[in-house]
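From the pipeline queue, job 12 of 40. The input is one protein chain; the requested action is below.

Action: predict structure.
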Amino acid sequence: MRRYRSLFVVLALGCSLAAIGLWSAIAGSQPGHVYYRDWVAVLTYHTFDRPDGPITVTRAQFEDHLRSLKAAGFNFISAAQFRAWKQGGGRIPPNAVLLTIDDGWPEVATVAAPILQRHRVPAVAFVIYGRIDRSPSHMSAEQVKSLPGYGIAVGSHSWDLHRQLGEKAAARVLPLDQLLADADRAGQVHRRLLGERPDMMAYPFGAYGRAFLQSLRDKGIDFGFTTRPGLVSRGTPDLEIPRINGGERGLSGQELVRRIVYYVRHAGYHIGGGYYRTRAEAAKAAAYFTRVTGYRMYVAPHPSREDGYWVQTGRTVGYARAEAFARQWEPWGLRYIMPAD
């Protein structure tokens, strides 16, 4: 397994999770049910209170989503929290959720923003800069500038790639220089409105190509959001962040909770522990733990130290299963749970 880019602090069982951001299978209790730790479920919405279409939600439905998620123990985080955590310098609460809204319809400002503010839920709105003040299907410049006041960060949804890509939705069919020119124009408008370049982008139609990804960082984009479903770990590639669709007509709050839990149950984890100075020592320990546990153990770079190794399982599907293993193997020190990339 490749070395984790982000620092994972491994502490003894008795340490307080309130003071540290640690993956621990048996760490201190939290209010409500803990579905996952050190992961983020990124939700996607589009339009609000539209009379038709499959990707619109009503005001009442949106409020039901927010209330249901909070009641189930989910904790909304801001773009700043997500950014700091992903870069290894910040902590997030268990059951963390980042809410995102694509396309920049006027209802983002007139419907969603007041509801989010009332429920004290931060969000990220990805706007299509070429439509600002030009299309009735998009916010005005003044509306975009008002979003941070509601706790909504603004990210890029391109300058005009929706029109250029059309229904083909394959970024690789567009020349790289055309894609990068679009990113430049988007960045210029964002800077004019908000005083800085955007560092987050949601790919139109969820489409992106490898060459485009390799060039995005030069344009100031540090985080790219896809339409591929799943949860986000620290090890998830920053420019290929999955999201879970919440903006579906008729979807109830309880159904949204179950949708997130589905991806939690299908996510992968490692159970590990120990510290060994050399790979040979770790390999010897891995062979021993393989015998005593009955599960194959592997050597991996230690997640919280610059040198040394520890022993961990392969990919275990489901947090509950990983937690059960960690409780069982605690006497041997294999008590820490980490997300599998």
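Job complete. The radius of gyration is 22 Å.
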